[in-house]
Amino acid sequence: MNDMSNRRIAPYIFITPWVLGFLIFRVYPFVNSFRLSFMRYRLMSTNNRFIGLDNYVRMLTDDPVFSKSFWATIKYVILTVPLVLVFSLFIAFILNFKLKGVNFFRTAYYIPSILGGNVAIVTLWKFLFETRGLVNQIITNLGGQQVRWYTDPNLAMLVMSLLRSWQFGSTMVIFLAALQNVPRSLYEAGAIDGATKFRMFFAITIPIITPVILFNFVMRTINAFQEFNSSYLITQGRPNYSTYLLNVYIYETAFRRNLNMGYAAALSWVLFLLIMILTMSVFRSSKYWVHYSD
Amino acid sequence: MELRTKRKINSFFRYIILILVGLIMLYPLMWLFTATFKGNHEIFTSAGLLPQEGFGDWSAWKRAWNFNTGYTFLHHFTNSLRYLVPRTFFTVVSSVITAYAVSRFSFKGKRIVFALIIGTLLMPSVIFTIPMYLFYNALGWINSYYPLWVEAMFATNSFFVFMLIQFFRTIPRELDEASIVDGCNTLQTLIYILVPVLKPIVITVAVLTFMWGMNDYLGPLIYITRMSRLPLSVALRTAIDAESTADYGKVYAMSFMALIPALTIFAFAQRYFIDGVATTGSKG
């Protein structure tokens, strides 16, 4: 075989695994989950059949758990995404200081993220906020009152969000790379004009890194909507389903409670649409606030 | 003189901030480690790090080695490796080949392929879970490790493919052309010329695949229910639940044990994934 025909055929051979994977693991389940969402489909049932929009109607009219977990999810995303973004940008900012040993801190700060959703970390987090846990011990040592983190819906949600904010590593690293790429000449120009550090941060740094803010914002939002571990392992949805995230509801409907795959598929489609609508509107809005330099 | 003093004060405050944040980041982990040397009473009364009795008492660790699941830590860790090793290997191979095709060749439909790779990057995985479960169930693969690694053979992780495409773009094409002049075919060019250049990013992909797999809980939770086959993540949870709250030292020691594989890899490979993530984007 000569080189030319090799170069002509080779890409099709190389791309074949991806094409197969895309069809089997992406297109097929996508179509099938849509189909399932219109079915009464239980594992090991012989009575699986199409029921039209019944799953969706039931969700909206006859399922108090759905609306609770829907709002819990929205609340979690609204609380977590800005918290993670602000925190990781702040950390990236201080890691951008020209100081000796700053690389050591960069590595150290990354450790909680690399342990990610590890059950051990989630469990540790749960213990930290228990009534007699480390956080309350520190609070009482400082003269404060014990806090019952898991009985108040807002506080329980906050515990879940704080876990994600503590694991800001990858978001922070991307911010850091962006901050290092801001041209120094702009700051010098700003300094000549007599701008304060504070003013320069908001008038120079932030506008320049808006594309990266958009990217992190979208990725964090998609991830936050699909959060599972903290709701399932830390709060178990307590109190009264107020921290019961949709992803947990989907899991329990499909694999625990009654193996109701059809209803779970419908729930996952609602979550999917929610994510898509939000992602799209963020992209749409981006032309008003994202600045591309080239 | 005045400026220098001002600068010194400035950097002093910066170190203070760095150390304070560092404490918030690492204190819980250090506390978890030292708590394994404390009794229940001490765990609940002292927020300090140093255990009263020092670090001599490893009995919690000995109790923790048996995971309350009827199996040891090592057994469950081996279970994790049984799908993480093939998953890591195949993810690397399939992603590199896909990225190679997209970044180095022109072929019909290439633009669509690239658009779909980006599109699936933004697709939430939740939508695929239930049909894939039914699919694997029909194949009789529930309670096997296949569902946890078979996908890896088909470059389904768009994040890695995208990351590799970005890296391919930084390698001059002259390198490929020279190797073709030397008589390499396209596959040989990839293996002998490009992969050595890509080594840092290949290691990054391997390490991240392994780490995320190690930390994954929902995946194995769905597919593996048989106690003897539980991987570390699910086994840890099961063990903690079985322990209830009688023996905190043991629970903490089990937890810390479960973190050791990830911490070890981090110690050896940290520069790879901090740099790797910075080049393209985020996850995890």
From TrEMBL, chain A:
Record flagged with keyword Chloroplast:
no
Cellular component, GO, one term: plasma membrane
How does the record say this protein sits in the membrane?
Multi-pass membrane protein
Q: Where in the cell is it found?
A: Cell membrane
Alphabetical list of Pfam families matching this protein: BPD_transp_1 (PF00528)
Q: Domain ABC transmembrane type-1: where?
A: 70-282
Can you cite a GO biological process for this protein? Answer: transmembrane transport
Q: Where are the transmembrane segments?
A: 12-31, 76-97, 109-128, 155-179, 200-219, 261-283
Q: Does the keyword Protein biosynthesis apply?
A: no
Q: Name the source's superkingdom.
A: Bacteria
InterPro entries xrefs? ABC_transporter_permease, MetI-like, MetI-like_sf
Q: Which UniProt keywords apply?
A: Cell membrane, Membrane, Transmembrane, Transmembrane helix, Transport
Q: Which Gene3D superfamilies match?
A: MetI-like (1.10.3720.10)
Q: Which SUPFAM superfamilies match?
A: MetI-like
Q: Its family?
A: Belongs to the binding-protein-dependent transport system permease family.
Q: Which PANTHER family match?
A: ABC TRANSPORTER PERMEASE PROTEIN, ABC TRANSPORTER PERMEASE PROTEIN YESP-RELATED
Its name, as the record gives it, is Oligogalacturonide ABC transporter membrane protein
Tell me the organism.
Natranaerovirga pectinivora
TrEMBL record, chain B:
Pfam families named among the record's database cross-references: BPD_transp_1 (PF00528)
Q: Does the keyword Transport apply?
A: yes
Keywords on this record?
Cell membrane, Membrane, Transmembrane, Transmembrane helix, Transport
Q: Which GO terms describe its cellular component?
A: plasma membrane
Question: Keyword Cell membrane, does the record have it?
Answer: yes
Q: Classify the protein's membrane topology as the record does.
A: Multi-pass membrane protein
Per the UniProt record, the lineage of the source organism begins with: Bacteria, Bacillati, Bacillota, Clostridia, Lachnospirales
Instruction: Check the record and name the InterPro entries matching this protein.
Output: MetI-like, MetI-like_sf
Q: Which residues form the ABC transmembrane type-1 domain?
A: 77-269
Q: Which CDD domains match?
A: TM_PBP2
Protein name as it appears in the record:
Oligogalacturonide ABC transporter membrane protein
Q: Which domain of life is it from?
A: Bacteria
Q: Where in the cell is it found?
A: Cell membrane
GO biological process entries: transmembrane transport
Q: Which family does it belong to?
A: Belongs to the binding-protein-dependent transport system permease family.
The transmembrane residues are 12-33, 84-102, 114-136, 148-168, 189-212, 251-269
